[in-house]
Amino acid sequence: MAGNSPLVGVLALQGDVREHERVLDELGIEHSPVRTVDQLGEVNALIIPGGESGVIDKLTRIFDVRDALIDRIQGGLPVLGTCAGLIMLADRLTGGLVGQQTLGGLDVTVERNAFGSQVDSFETTIDMPPIGGAPIRSSFIRAPIVRDAGSAEIIATLPSGEIVGVRQGNIVGISFHPEVSNEVRVHEWWVRTVVTPALQ
Amino acid sequence: MAENTVGTLRIKSGLADMLKGGVIMDVVNAEQARIAEDAGAVAVMALERVPADIRAQGGVARMSDPDLIDAIKREVTIPVMAKARIGHFVEAQVLQALEVDYIDESEVLSPADYVNHIDKTNFTVPFVCGATNLGEALRRITEGAAMIRSKGEAGTGDVSEATKHIRTIRSEIAALAAKTADELFVAAKELQAPYELVKWVSENGQLPVVLFVAGGVATPADAAMMMQLGADGVFVGSGVFKSGNPVERAKAIVKATAAYTDAKVIAEVSRGLGEAMVGINVNDLPAPHRLSERGW
User: Fold this and answer.
1) CB-CB under 8 Å, A16 with B10
2) ipTM of the complex
3) Report field, pTM of the whole predicted structure over 0.90
4) How many C-beta atoms lie closer than 10 Å to residue A104's C-beta?
5) pLDDT reported for residue A187
6) Best mutation site among B3, B5, B11, B70 for testing chain A: the one with the most A CBs within 10 Å?
């Protein structure tokens, strides 16, 4: 748990866990799946993957990890959420399932499934000013949109104006899936600028 | 800034990636769709009759009424899938126009073409297709399928065929991964699948798309067994709504699928579920009535 080699947890209740693990492997970053409170206690950062946000929410409650997740996020744990992960990290949610809850942490309002059905899902490239360089390859799959960024910093916007990436302190949430697009730079940036400094 | 591109293989298989670790439930009306979503299904399959009823009632089974699909789409916000007959590309066009999230080109319906499957590369909406072995899975992927489900024997509540098919596909992948490069040309011939795809599977030791299991899953333990055998997720057809207590059984199968290695959880969720679906032993089914033999 010390020095410059973080152990990144991937919340492994449901969704595209394997794609995130593949990116971390490619970057040479140690990782482990998180399904229990004990496993959560071992990691110094957490990725909440894409998936069905309403199902991930239910499973955090069924398997009694919800309260521990909230405690660690509020305690400053570096977190990266993609798609459903962004939804889980939003303080406010519209378009959710009946009774759907989030973990919170980002002072934003997110609209779930904001682009329409699967035929409206798309691939594109997107500028992320904090990362710079060539545009980021990204997949938007039944993706959410940040409708109100509140006090969070906006780190990604579509040409049409929709906010699709935000950061607040150690928490980063994006609407899209770099991990599905063979894109490693978002994870690399998050580990370098958020996770590693938090270990010091 | 690049344009947005819809309907790429990455976007199609990407949605299946998001469903991993989850349960997809057959539903025949909005009320069942509500139960499925509330129980934690990652998606629902909208159809007019569950396979057990198709089997019991006989006749030609076709794509569902658009009104039924619309009613289910209005009821839930999780992805909605629907079935087209094998080879019936116009049913698939209709389902795409209805904006379903996934089309299942399914042997549970009566085939519309006994030679050709649908050319799935022509569609924006992704397809899932059934397979009983690796060669069949690779042929469907060549035609554009973005997700494979092993077929099992739908509408029976007998998990033995599902077990056979997932074991077959997994062991054929393992055998392919063990082959040397010069053996892959003959392997492609034997699998009746394109060499490039055979080579990819051999090098990567997995299918290029998500692999779910379907056909005969009726209990939480059935679902967990399929996951332990290497499935990425589970389809439950008749198993939920042909049982004594669909609400509790649906929740239990979701939990057992997520915690598939934890026998204590599976034991706990298996309590007090009432009657499982009655079931038919696959061995008692005359061969012409076996749905898994449709498709090739």
Assistant:
1) no
2) 0.95
3) yes
4) 18
5) 98
6) B11
Domain range annotation of chain A:
8-199
Q: Are B131 and B86 in contact (CB under 8 A)?
A: no
List pLDDT tens digits, range B182-193.
Answer: 999 999 999 999
Q: Between these two residues, B292 and B10, which has the higher pLDDT value? A: B10
- DSSP codes joined into one string, B228-293: HTT-S-EEESHHHHTSS-HHHHHHHHHHHHHTTT-HHHHHHHHTT--PPP----GGGS-GGG-GGG
pLDDT tens-place string over residues B20-33: 999 999 999 999 99
Q: Do B4 and A19 touch (CB under 8 A)?
A: no
Average pLDDT, chain A: 96
Contacts of A50 in chain B (CB under 8 A): 17-18
Q: Using an 8 Å Cβ cutoff, are B278 and B219 in contact?
A: no
Q: Which residues of B touch A117 (CB under 8 A)?
A: 79, 99-101
Dmax (CA) for chain A in angstroms is 46
Strand arrangement of the beta sheet that strand B5-6 belongs to: A136-140, A122-126, B5-6
pLDDT in tens, B153-162: 998 999 999 9
Specify the CATH superfamily of domain A8-199.
Class I glutamine amidotransferase (GATase) domain (3.40.50.880)
A-to-B residue pairs, Cβ atoms closer than 8 angstroms = 129
> Would you call A146 helix, strand, or coil by DSSP?
strand
How many residues appear in chain B? 296
B70, with CB counted inside 10 A (0-12, 13-18, 19+), is: middle
In sequence order, the β-bridge partners of residue B211 are: B148
**Which pLDDT does position B288 carry in this prediction?**
73
Amino acid making up residue A89:
L
Q: Residues B28, B240: contact at Cβ < 8 Å?
A: no
CA distances from A51 to A142, B29, B188 (A): 10, 24, 34
Which residues from chain B sit within 8 angstroms of residue A60, using beta carbons?
none
What are the DSSP calls for B172-197, one per residue? HHHHHHTS-GGGHHHHHHHHTS-HHH
